[in-house]
Amino acid sequence: METTKILTGYFIYLPVAIALTLIVSRTLFKNARIFMLDIFKGREEIANATNKLFETGFYLLNLGFAFLILRIDLYNNSYQALVEALSYKIGGFSIYLGFMLFLNLYFFFRGKRKAKENRIDERIVFTAGKP
Fold first, then answer.
1. How many helices, marked H, and strands, marked E, lie in the chain?
2. Which residue from 21, 27, 31, 29 is spatially nearest to 96, judged by alpha carbons?
3. Are 1 and 77 spatial neighbours (Cβ–Cβ below 8 Å)?
4. Which of 9, 11, 70, 100 has the most C-beta neighbours closer than 10 Å?
């Protein structure tokens, strides 16, 4: 009976973890394109390519972590234990996804700030050269 509950847990956890990863990734990288275009000064091809690489890395890290923490041990063979184990797994994975989302946002804002600093430096160089 315990094996059936554990398999039920896997059949619930895996689709939820994959769906959460897909939803967060699509939201993040749909909006990250704007940052990439700003960072790469409107060069669409390199902005899209970089955004796609970030997205691929995001999928690999998050799905890899979801699979890494897949194991469910039910010491008490009850549905209560299954629900508690699933809530712990899904809650922990959601917190991890939130952390990864904010880490990516930090990198996007940092890249945008650096791009802005470079533009200011370029303006200073160009205006300093004029009499």
1. 3, 0
2. 21
3. yes
4. 9
pTM to 2 decimals?
A: 0.80
The answer to whether the CB of 115 falls within 8 A of the CB of 69 is: no
Are 115 and 38 within 8 A, CB to CB?
yes
Please report where in the chains the tokens 């996007």 appear, as a residue: 108
The DSSP output letter for 130 is -
pLDDT tens series, the chain, 131 aa: 468 889 999 999 999 999 999 999 999 999 988 888 888 888 999 999 999 999 999 999 999 999 999 998 888 888 999 999 999 999 999 999 999 999 998 988 888 888 888 776 666 655 655 55
Beta strands in 1-131 (DSSP E): none
